[in-house]
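Components:
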Amino acid sequence: MEVLVLNRNFFAIQITSWRRALRLVCLDRAQVVDQEYRTYNFDDWCTLSRAVKDHPGGFVKTPNFNLAIPEVIALKFYDKVPMREMKFTRKNIYEHYDYKCCYCGKKLAPNELNLDHIVPKSRGGKTDWKNIVTSCFPCNLKKGNMLLNEAKMKLLIKPNRPSINPGFGIILKSPIRLRTSWQKFIDNIYWNIELEN
Ligand SMILES: [Zn+2]
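Structure:
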């Protein structure tokens, strides 16, 4: 059972286990949030739990009563939005350069593009945003194992690292079914799911 975690400003920032969610509420570091955006501290939530018979999140048994499992919690002290860096993948690099060859500027189909080390790998060039650009095959061949000045080539599009995603990105490590109760907290933010297997 997963619980959606909001920051203090009600931005969705994370998904966590119900155990951790309840621990955070118990430690008074988070409050439970219901569908009407009401918040509950641990005592209130215990009182409410005793009063309800049905709860969409289910219950966890305690010695004296059944404690409802929150669906959404909000952290009390954390108001940041975690920054997310764009992953260095072929797809992201192609998209970053808009499927253009950075040497001649031609826009091409993905299968007509290649990745090129500006400073060749064999000469110590790194494989990172600063040294990798998209290139068409002819430019790639022309440049070969040379440096830019040796090949007498110029970059029409300068390499640069994509700006850090300013969105409110949540990274899901595995595909998780989004719960309907989360929807209203997610609808009003930029929801960026990265699925990793
Ligand atoms: Zn080219």
